[in-house]
TrEMBL record:
The keyword Signal applies. Keywords: Signal. It comes from the Bacteria. Pfam families: CusF_Ec. InterPro entries: CusF_Ec, CusF_sf. Residues 1-18 form the signal peptide. This is Copper efflux system periplasmic protein CusF.
Length: 123
């Protein structure tokens, strides 16, 4: 009797473990397997640099850090509404600018940060 119970328990345990192993090993549908490739493609699209043009006012300048903050109007090329935002800028482009200056500018946006490529005082 004791051997029968031990055997039955062992058999049940083996069957249970086998079922768990099969559940974990079940293959995913083909569309799930392709998902990482789709995600990588989406990330690559987000990483593409986009170019935009705008106008605004200088609200802060940090020439040592190569940064300028602009209160700018909408930028159609980037689908941006008007906002105040900081951008990286080569120090050479910041020379002669002052807080309060009205400017026209161009920038490159990589999906995370923008870099001013041209900035000029407006008359």
């Amino acid at each position: 009797m004791k051997k029968s119970v031990t055997f039955a328990l062992g058999l049940a345990l083996t069957a249970g473990l086998a079922a768990c192993g099969q559940q974990g090993e079940t293959s995913k549908p083909a569309e799930d397997a392709a998902a990482p490739a789709k995600d990588v493609g989406a990330m690559a699209m987000l990483a593409e640099t986009r170019h935009g043009k705008g106008t605004g006012s200088v609200t802060a300048i940090d020439t040592a850090a190569g940064e300028v903050t602009l209160d700018h109007g909408a930028i159609a090329e980037l689908d941006w509404p008007a906002m105040t935002m900081g951008f990286a800028a080569p120090q050479k482009l910041l020379e002669g600018l002052a807080v309060g200056d009205r400017v026209s500018f161009e920038l490159d946006w990589n999906g995370k940060a923008g870099t001013i490529t041209r900035i000029e005082k407006m008359k």
